[in-house]
Amino acid sequence: MYAVFVDESGDPGLRTVNTEYPVFAVGAVICLEREYATRIDRQVKQFKHSVLGSPDVRLDSRDIAKQQGPFRDLIARDRRRAFSQQLTELLASLPLTLVSACLNKEMHMREYGRFRRSAYSFTLPFVMERLVYLLTDRHDGAAVIVQTHGKREDRIFAQVWEEQLEGGSYYHAASEFRSRLPRLDFRPASDNFSGLQLADLAAAACARFVLDPSRPNDVFSALSAKLYQGKFTEPDRFGLKVIP
Fold it and tell me: What does 17-37 look like in DSSP terms, one character per residue?
């Protein structure tokens, strides 16, 4: 059985656009449950204890980027560089697969106008479809754990998820979605799941890559090799969808 951890980066609303961060990304980190329990969770906690002084610190992409909270010491350039190197080494060593969908809201609004639907409607179906590809290839299913982001956001996420389970897609029947993705569970940040923190880092790194591929992005560099490829050989990343 697999475990899938899902988090997001950015605002899922499509009525307005934050020009400083005009992107919304959903990131899904996939791993075997036994590897999560015996290796991944342990390594993440060891990293936090060694580098940050406590396994209870949450790896939060926003706090890291703004050098605030438990990451305020990263305002010093040498400490920031050392932390970035240690973090990327950790991420590169973990047995993970990554799927992500990123919506460039500014380009989408310019091309299609405003939408009443949320960004989940555009990003989540792609992520679910790729999860079904992966799990079908591996003849298994997955328990999916999602970071909570508020009652309204969780409700819309669950609604889009259920629509996909009931309606299927062009490539997969609804029965495939239901059999491969039988469990969906929302968990708060206070639960301090290592997998959800990895999903947060992944979603933010993919979002920053979409905003500016030329900008240094150590987390994305560490995780890009883990993007799901399936049996496909296209030069673009099969596990990363950029919308539109």
Answer: --TTS-EEEEEEEEEEHHHII
**Helix ranges, 36-173 (H):** 41-52, 61-66, 77-93, 105-112, 120-137, 151-167
Q: Which residues have a Cβ under 8 Å from the Cβ of 229 and sit 6 or more positions away? A: 237, 238, 239
Angle between helices 194-211 and 41-52 (to 10 degrees): 80
Distance of CA 92 to the CA centre of its chain: 16
Facing residues of 32 across strands? 2
pLDDT, tens digit (0-9, with 9 covering 90-100), for 106-133: 887 777 777 677 899 999 999 999 999 9
pTM as predicted: 0.95
pLDDT band at 235 (very low <50, low <70, confident <90, very high): very low
Q: What kind of fold does domain 2-243 have according to CATH?
A: Nucleotidyltransferase; domain 5 (3.30.420)
